[in-house]
Amino acid sequence: MSVPEPVVHVAFLPSAGMGHLNPCLRLASVFLRYGCKVTLIIPRPTVSLAESNLISSFSSSFPHQVTQIDFKLTPLDPNTVNTNDPFFLQYETIRRSVHLLSPILSSLSTSLSAFIFDIFLVSPILSIADKIFCPSYINFTSSARMLSFIAYVSVLADSDQAAQRHPSKFVGDAIQIPGFTLPIPRSSVPPPFLLEGSNPFQRMIMEDSPNLTKLDGVFMNSFEELEGEALAALNEGKVVRGLPPVYGIGPLRAGEFENVDEGQKGCMSWILEWLNERAEGSVVYVSLGNRTKTRREQIKDMALGLIECGYSFLWVVKLKRVDREEEEDLEDVLGRELMSKLREKGVVVKEFVDQIKILEHPAVGGFVTHGGWNSITEAIGEGVNILTWPQGGDQKINAELLRMRGVGIWAEEWDWGTQKVVEGKEIAKKIKEMMSNESLRVKAGEMKDAARKACGVGGSCEVTIKRLIEEWKRNA
Ligand code: UDP
Ligand code: UDP
């Protein structure tokens, strides 16, 4: 009698926001493609509506292969966390609720081959590792350059001669990570990391950085042609000795499950109709991701820039960080006159859109993005020209990388989008520069081909995932 093949069972735990949920579900769908059983542990309640919609759609797309388990969080008093960002409050809430995971994990009917959790949960999950009984991996949701920064922080803190171990002191003017051609200047470091005192972002990085070596591996939504230097530096022990393997399995592709039904994304059908009527490569798509609101001081100049740039545009504006709180009408904010001028030349919406459907549309030739890593890898996968306007977090580190690889331009003189107001005519000028840049278009086309190869049949993603699955089967 033949021995049945062991079942490979992988559990996933995302943190908060679409920037973390999308790559988690996309990675889970890769494992599903190769026949694995998936358990998805969902922290509840979610912060945004977009997250709950996507989770429902994912589970109903894979009714037999996916088990969904709700992880009911213990609410935290925001005053004890020192943040007014609901997503950061959620990271902290998940971190402090992690002890409640042990009974969930021990009640699973099939033993786990691997547990893959979000980057923002490293130390708390490792603290219950003795109850997980399987290899622990993180799904890293930014660039390999950003992971190198996070990992190297532990080296910098250890070498801090005054032993103050505070980032505002040990970061210096620039960070030269071993194995990297370009240093990371102080001005590109995520701003909360440099603040005096302490905040959740800073505490999380400082606590998690030295613990990365305890993981069994890191899944990275990147690939050789885009970030060969950083992936090599990480894997060759140049950044930090003892780091586990960093698997470049990107760019993660969007799945069918992301076609959330029309009722929830009501504007998509007419946006696509509008795009169908535009010439190839003629439209600029503008979006700052799922959790960055466009500052009130900047919004009118943004509108003026788009009106003046000479291209058609699709502008997705967020007025609130969290979609559940969106109430205001765009016309009330922009004024009737500006709104009607905008509508003569383009489309402006405040709904959550299907970004992949937009980026893959032939009419879209350029993308003005904050530089969130998912947006960047999605645009690279579609060969769209990129202009980055970093607003916070890892976004300058990502922008620098794109510029270095020749696939994007970065309005560096605009600094962080939270700091000054950029005039409309400046914005129009940069958009023209990005849209008409032929060398950018050639490079973007080459990177798209490399991206397709990496995530296609026989590409680096498939090879790595199949190898890991075999390894887990052997160890079962
Ligand atoms: N997104 C989307 N529609 C929107 C806004 C965002 O589909 O209206 C998706 C986008 O495609 C990406 C994610 O949400 O996958 C945002 O992640 P990213 O890393 O780009 O930025 P963040 O929002 O985390 O700052
Ligand atoms: N941030 C914040 N309050 C905090 C900590 C961070 O508003 O207490 C903001 C910060 O300014 C930046 C973002 O959170 O915009 C940093 O998040 P990052 O981009 O690294 O994370 P992700 O988008 O991947 O969740």
Automatic annotation (TrEMBL):
Keyword annotations from UniProtKB, A to Z: Glycosyltransferase, Transferase
InterPro entries (alphabetical): UDP-glycosyltransf_plant (IPR050481), UDP_glucos_trans (IPR002213)
Domain of life: Eukaryota
GO molecular function: UDP-glucosyltransferase activity
The family this protein is said to belong to: Belongs to the UDP-glycosyltransferase family.
Record's protein name: Coniferyl-alcohol glucosyltransferase
Organism: Vigna unguiculata (Cowpea)
